[in-house]
Amino acid sequence: MKFMGSYTRKEAVDILSRMLEIYSPTGYERGLADFIYKLLLDHGLNVRMDPVGNVIATIGYGDPKILLCGHMDTVPGYIPVRVRGIRIYGRGAVDAKGPLASMISASIIASHCKLNGTIILACVVDEEGGSKGVLKLIEDGFKVDYAIFGEPSGTSNVTVGYKGSMHMKLMVKGMGGHASAPWLFHNPLEIIFEAYRSIKGGIESLVDSNDKFYRYSVALTIVKGGVAANVIPSEAEGYLDIRLPPGSNPTSIYEIVKQEVLKIISRYRGIRLDIELLGSTPPYEEKVDSVLVKAFQDAIKLELNVEAGILRKSGTSDMNIYAAKMGVPSVAYGPGNPRLSHRNIEWIEINDYLCSIRILLKVLSNFIGLDLNEVYRVFT
């Protein structure tokens, strides 16, 4: 695909369709990475692939520097790619190949225009896993002035915040025994549920807010235990997913969990209850009056003639990790209904996808001097 002086809407849609056809669950992004690498190379971009498999392109030079970061991996479960009317279906259409494709298209278009600054396009791996892609960017010192992450917000919205998270495992060991005499034994499964309720109450009572984004939540997501229907198990495990609002201190939350666990232990003799912190991600919230948010508000108003919606999500993304570690103003943006993420049906409207490309270009014009007349000449 050699650049011939213009970049058509059909090309943009074809690129998205091809990306959807390349199945790329976490850990299997290489096929998509190879496709994107060749695509960008054919369009004359300065592109490389780093040791973890991220595809990184640099457009322009000098300051300011803007990072466009989207992830190539999806959750498992292939969805046949098809176009039905105004929609395109496929795994990742929403989360997050649609947003990534819009960033790729915007970068290709911008590369054929005069710039006063630098765009760094990072197509990263493992966002749905351990985020080793964005962690590699941090390790390599990808310090920029502004960062935009490709995640579904809906074309007319911009995401300014994500909650943080902590994942823990509870492990209970007891004696076990015959289920016909439950009064003789402490049941590890029951203790898991008791510990969960105690931890949930201790953490969720910390903040009283009508806005769920600023509240803590604790969910019991997995319980394991038992060997037979007539045996009280000798051990059990429970997994907790704790979501953290902005301003949270994970260390303090972990101390609360430990105190609740000690209360449980004091009630039972002969049992052991241990906790293990499996991982954590910090919360992040961008200021609504920041110049980056304002640029999206202006671009959405100009393109769609509506006021931009401001989203704050209870999930996490690579934005949490990068923005918190690097101290860079960051937002997330991309086409698609976030509620379709990880579902058995994923689709976006083709016009919303094309519109998101134009909005990204308008945002970039605020920072790196893109001439929109030149953009419209290229993007036909």
Q: What is the CATH class name of the largest domain?
A: Alpha Beta
Bin the helical content. 25-40%
Radius of gyration: 24 Å
Low-confidence stretches: none
* Helix-strand pattern: HHEEEEEHEHEEEEHEEEHEEHEHEEHH
CATH homologous superfamily caption of the largest domain: Zn peptidases
Number of helices, where a helix is a run of at least 4 consecutive DSSP H or I residues: 10
Per DSSP, what share of the residues sits in E-state strands of 2 or more residues? 25-35%
Number of domains: 2
Going across the biggest sheet, name each strand in turn.
1-2-6-3-7-17
Oligomer: single chain
The average pLDDT is 95
Q: Which structural class matches the secondary elements?
A: alpha+beta
Secondary structure layout plus pairing:
Blueprint: H1 9-21, H2 30-42, E1 46-49, E2 55-60, E3 65-71, E4 82-84, E5 87-89, H3 97-110, E6 118-124, H4 132-139, E7 146-150, E8 157-162, E9 164-173, E10 177-178, H5 188-204, E11 217-225, E12 231-232, E13 235-244, H6 250-267, E14 272-281, E15 284-285, H7 291-304, E16 309-313, H8 318-326, E17 330-333, E18 347-349, H9 350-368, H10 372-378
Parallel strand pairs: 3-6, 3-7, 7-17, 8-16
Antiparallel strand pairs: 1-2, 2-6, 4-5, 5-18, 8-15, 9-13, 9-14, 10-12, 11-13
Helix pairs in contact: 1-3, 3-9, 4-8, 5-6, 7-9
